[in-house]
């Protein structure tokens, strides 16, 4: 069994977070250390440590992450100008929290692909 991270506590609302969306499959909240004017994390409620651990049964949650990203971008007013979705995997990908999460970043020109 994978070890829980702080994100499981956020999903269960055991620690404070600025939750912007939650349903049966996913939760979205603002990043504690925003790297852009809009920086949110969209995560599956189920603990999946890395993208390498995604299984066919997880496809509904993975799809929901994208539809929620689209909805949040619209609500945030960044859909038309554009934004970036990022998922980091393991050490070389720069993953710090081992509960998969999609970064939604926008609100300013983000420049070339890598965040640096
Ligand atoms: P990673 O580097 O794993 O792709 O990104 C992890 C992200 O989670 C970072 O952007 C970091 O700021 C954010 N983060 C880590 N701990 C917390 C927390 O307790 N609350 C919130 N809202 N964001 C967190």
UniProtKB/TrEMBL annotation:
Protein known as: Histidine triad nucleotide-binding protein
Entry-linked InterPro entries: Histidine_triad_CS, Histidine_triad_HIT, HIT-like, HIT-like_sf
Alphabetized SUPFAM superfamilies for the sequence: HIT-like
Domain (HIT) ranges: 6-115
Signal peptide start-end: none
Entry annotation: catalytic residues: 101
UniProt motif Histidine triad motif: location: 99-103
Organism from which the protein derives: Enterovibrio norvegicus FF-454
Single GO term (MF): catalytic activity
């Amino acid at each position: 069994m994978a070890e829980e991270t702080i994100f499981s506590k956020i999903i269960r609302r055991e620690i404070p977070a600025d939750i912007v969306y939650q349903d049966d499959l996913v939760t979205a909240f603002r990043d504690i250390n925003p790297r852009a004017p809009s920086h949110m994390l969209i995560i599956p409620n189920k603990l999946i440590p890395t993208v390498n651990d995604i299984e066919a049964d997880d496809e509904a949650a993975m799809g929901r992450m994208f539809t929620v990203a689209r909805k949040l971008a619209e609500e945030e007013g960044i859909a038309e100008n554009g934004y970036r979705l990022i998922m980091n995997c393991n050490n070389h990908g720069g993953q710090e929290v081992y509960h998969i999460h999609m970064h939604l970043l926008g609100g300013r020109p983000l420049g070339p692909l890598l965040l640096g």
